[in-house]
Amino acid sequence: MKKKLRIVINALMAVMIITQWIKLCLSISGSGFMTGGLRTLKYFTVLSNLLEAFACVMFIVKGNETIKYVAAVSVGLTFTVVMVFLGPVFGYAMMFAGPSLWFHLLIPLAAMAELIIFNHRKLTVKDNLWTVFPMLVYGISYLGNIIINGIPGNDWYGFLRWGYPAGAVILVIIVLITYLIGFILRKLNEKVGVIR
Predict the structure, then answer these.
(1) What angle do CA 101, 11, 108 make, to 5 degrees?
(2) Helices (H), the chain
(3) In a domain, 111, yes or no
(4) What is the mean pLDDT of the segment spanning 33-62?
(5) CA-CA distance, 31 to 95, in Å (whole number)?
(6) In this predicted model, what pLDDT tens digit does every residue of 97-152 receive, in sequence order?
(7) Inside any domain, residue 88
(8) How many domains does the structure of the chain reveal?
(9) How far apart are CA 99 and CA 96, in angstroms?
(10) What is the mean pLDDT of residues 154-159?
(11) 29: helix, coil or strand?
């Protein structure tokens, strides 16, 4: 029964992510994003949520817990950056408008809660290191794109408004925060997970 419940939760999350992404692609008005269409794939928010949708499907099909952990941490990072940085800078009303409400708040909270409560495999330090991989790849690509193409139009998160050295420091901090989110979720799962 508990396994069936988890499959239903994962199916609902995957459907909602894909539905909200399609809505976002079709219209940027009131979405909280500066662009629409496939250009939304430049945002870590969108990529982390699509990773969560993929992880949900992989769990349903193969029972893969590692990708669920990596994806939950990725959307957890999205939630954290929105709450701590983007919300105060751009306004929470914008951050929670339209599909952004799902991508920035509802899916991250659901994914983290689902992992904490239902994960049945012991998560390890090695798993925790894997959680950093999506952010590290994205961060290096983000900075690389700016180095090649310049800041105007390419620093959509505003991380380089204080210059390249500050941007590099921010990347390191975000990678460390990602690891910390993974550590916290792993420990919470050990303490309060109900399925073993």
Answers:
(1) 30
(2) 2-26, 44-62, 65-81, 87-90, 92-95, 99-101, 107-118, 125-130, 133-149, 164-192
(3) yes
(4) 91
(5) 8
(6) 889 999 999 999 999 999 999 998 899 999 999 999 999 999 999 989 998 998 88
(7) yes
(8) 1
(9) 8
(10) 85
(11) coil
